[in-house]
Amino acid sequence: MEALKIKDIGEAIRRVRKTKGLRLEDLADDGISTATISNIERGVAHAHTSKVYYLMEKLGLSMEQIPEILMGQEEELKELKFRLTSIEAMIDLEKPRDAVSQLNQIDLEDHHPYAALVQYIRGKAFRVMKKWKRAEKSFSSAIVLSKQNNDKENMEAVSFLELSLCCYLQNNMDKALDFANSGLKAFDQEGERRYVKYALLRNKIIFLERLGRVVEGLKVIQDVWDQIDEIKDMETVLTLYSTRVDLLRKTGMMDEAIHYAEEGLELARINKHYSCMFDMWTILGSVYTSKGRWERAEQCFHTALASKHLIQNGMVLTDAYVWLGILNVQQKKWDQAKESLQQAIANAEKHDDAPKLIYALRVMGDFWKEQDNKQEAIPYYERALQIAQKFHYKPAEKKLHFRLSQCYKDRDQKEFERSLLKMYETQMELKRGAGDILEEE
């Protein structure tokens, strides 16, 4: 028997056994063991032909019946796939509890072709409900089942994508980045859900940016940019645009940043993607602030904030408030700056967004330091430092130690020296033993 036929026959045997309400143990005897029956049902190629025929005879199954049985299975699989697609759509429609309720009515064995898909959808529902441990358990099960069943739907890669998102939403960027890399490694170019590759790359870039690894993030964007026309998900495309603009600003390439911001804004406007429009206006405003173009920057921020009622994810508001505060600090508009930065801090706290909260607190500290009120600045730097240390954001730690050293200089020699030492230790951790000879300019 050919391997493919053995697999088909095994599936037919399994279905007939189930229909008759028999367990593996009920069919086992001196002529065939439960292990052999299990191997036959799973289509293991080395199962002996005589054992297959022996098992079929015990079940009263003939070779002529198999095509009809398999045809019935194919129809059942189509119906189940349609049902699962509908359940997954319920999650996208913000009905995750209904999705879990429907999934609980589906009982599949681990070797079923859609066993991994069920676990993935369950995990996605729990992730939306912020039940992190249950979500992570379901995605881990989906990964195991996907490998076990030689899945062709990229369930392994898409589950790693969701795991990376779970970690990101819990402010664990290092682990999020590891999962994104695992997903890219697992991705099957010939499998289904091909959008997963670009979603993983998009997430990887975001995580690198959050970790302060700007040059690495920019390199990933440049590598994927030639394929951008292949990406069907417009949100992924626009996120790549906005992240590229932000990374270009951080590396000082302002004119190039403006070019891509304008391209991204046009795409977002045409597709009526308001969240991405908000993002792009904010980032463009940050570019003009960095260039000292105050009027243009202010117009960008006010345009972004004028659309905040259209934004579903309030997390993005933090950046706009921070940059508006920075702009006002640059212009010595202290009252407006303070109000904007307070809004930024409150918004980051509301959404439990640790990286943005660190940034907002740091800028509020800068606000007081710019007015030579270092005593007021210190608590903001200290609080930001505590959060950065909790989530291991080393680049942010280094910047905060430096600012604290500035505050303590000529005020508290012991704390000044302590901050400098901590800054040095953090820098050494960031280098991770790399030789100076390899250091870029």
From TrEMBL:
Pfam families per UniProt: HTH_3, TPR_12, TPR_7
Q: List where the protein spans the membrane.
A: none
Q: Where in the cell is it found?
A: Cytoplasm
Per-repeat ranges for TPR: 358-391
Task: Give an example GO molecular function.
Answer: DNA binding
Spell out the InterPro entries in the cross-references. Answer: Bac_ResReg_Asp_Phosphatase, Cro/C1-type_HTH, Lambda_DNA-bd_dom_sf, TPR-like_helical_dom_sf, TPR_rpt
Q: Where is the HTH cro/C1-type domain?
A: 13-66
| Gene Ontology CC: one annotated term | cytoplasm
**Lineage: superkingdom:** Bacteria
Signal peptide start-end? none
Identify the keywords attached in UniProt to this record, alphabetized. Cytoplasm, Repeat, TPR repeat
> What PANTHER family does its record include?
TETRATRICOPEPTIDE REPEAT PROTEIN 29 (PTHR46630:SF1)
- Recorded family membership: Belongs to the Rap family.
Q: What is this protein called?
A: Anaphase-promoting complex subunit 5
